Amino acid sequence: MTADSGAAGADRLGVTLLFSVVAHAVLALGITFQYEKAPPRLPSLDVILVQSANSETPEKADFIAQATNAGGGESDKAHRPAQPMSSALPKPLPGVAPVPLEDGAPRPTPPSPVERLTQHKSDFSVTTEREAQEAPELPLAEREAEQRRLEMARLAQEIQRESEQYAKRPKKKYISANTKEYEFAAYMRAWVARIERIGNLNYPDEARRRQLHGQLVLTVGLDRQGRVKSIDVIQSSGHKLLDDAAERIVRLAEPFPALPETKEKVDELYISRTWQFLPGDILRNR
Questions:
Q1: Domain that holds residue 210
Q2: Which end of the chain is more exposed for a tag (fewer CB within 10 A), N or C?
Q3: Can you give the pTM of this predicted structure?
């Protein structure tokens, strides 16, 4: 019994000395233990594709993209640009999944199994009696005053309608050889000089061959831009050839200069002149 106890104590002492020697060797020799490192991988580069760009280059970029973009967004912190919908690649932020919508139209209901009979015309009718409200009869003086007010309102409406129609009418000005107003007199002198120059260059050949002479009174209407609005023969020369030649000369001479700016603000100008086809194939306008 004593021998067995001594052997067990010697074994425990030997095991303790063994662990003590191993521990001192680890500390003395610097032997350490660590996990096995993962094999090295190829380096990766995260590039963000942006949809907008500007010419400003940031001093310190938060992300790498295909184009420069300084600023933008509503947050003070840097966030990775992303689309609101989820993509096939994993992202740290969850996407927005579509929410199913219910139909707005009511669901169809099955037909009623109960049958109802109707007819086009029924003999049954309901009559309703409404009490007619009689207008109180006004005294004679009040009726006459009301009639006068209605007549005055009708006359005022007619006057307003006539004034509006008159305001819409163009302002016309009629001038002749006796016009003394400076603006229109100067305009008419230039107009006459243009007519005589064009008329002598385009004197009618038929009148030259037949030696036709005469005079006529012609009124030419012009709009504000100087375009011919109307040509009226006030007094004929007695020869339709000369009357038509005068109208043709006016058409060849248009467009004329625009009307002068005056206080009257004339919209249409009518010039009445006497046209003379004289011997020697000369046209005079007076």
A1: 172-285
A2: N
A3: 0.42
